[in-house]
Amino acid sequence: MGRKWNNIKEKKASKDANTSRVYAKFGREIYVAAKKGEPDPESNQALKVVLERAKTYSVPKAIIDRAIEKAKGGTEENFDELRYEGFGPSGSMIIVDALTNNVNRTASEVRAAFTKNGGNMGVSGSVAYLFDATAVIGVEGKSSEDVLELLMEADIDARDIVDEDGAVIIYAAPDEFHAIQEALKQNGVEEFTVAEQTMLAQTENALDAEAEKQFDKLIDALEDLEDVQQVYHNVDLEG
Fold this sequence. Notes:
Elements: H1 5-15, H2 21-36, H3 45-56, H4 61-72, E1 80-87, E2 93-100, H5 103-115, E3 120-122, E4 131-140, H6 144-153, E5 158-164, E6 167-172, H7 177-185, E7 194-201, H8 209-223, E8 228-233
Helix pairs in contact: 2-3, 2-4
């Protein structure tokens, strides 16, 4: 599918190594998920998804516990879940997911990030239809053949299973996320290298060196925004 998930995670980890930004974003996401239902991952599937992903980014337990306790405390801090769509250099397409307690501020900041870095905002639906919601799960210690066999035995249909840098990456429909994890856990998997609910572009766009440099600046500007949780795009940065 063209994505190098382990490489993407390494780049993000390197970028965030000297900041608390990634932890702050997870703290907000965990709080919002816990507020949606019971603050217990066993009965709150949205919270369970976030916590599984947080583990793969080594989010400290203290950050997780603080966010859940905040939700339990009945804090009336409310966040809106927003999605923005837009275009970057050379026809690149971008989706931005945000959690915000100030919609006007977030919209203004996202728009400014686009316009100052060679992009422009699109209307709702202008980009998202060219992306597919996808569960991505990565494991080590098993071959792709082993993973395929155990998923077939569990009657789980994966979209794709690929080997990548010593790990097996599974792509599947979002509603198969928990079933895949449970099947793997029952077959000895204790940790996941990737546990993402993401948006994958149906086709990828390769940029020339100058356009890619501008694109990187745009993505950095968007990811640096406090309210932005996830940024998805259709650019092949491994090409």
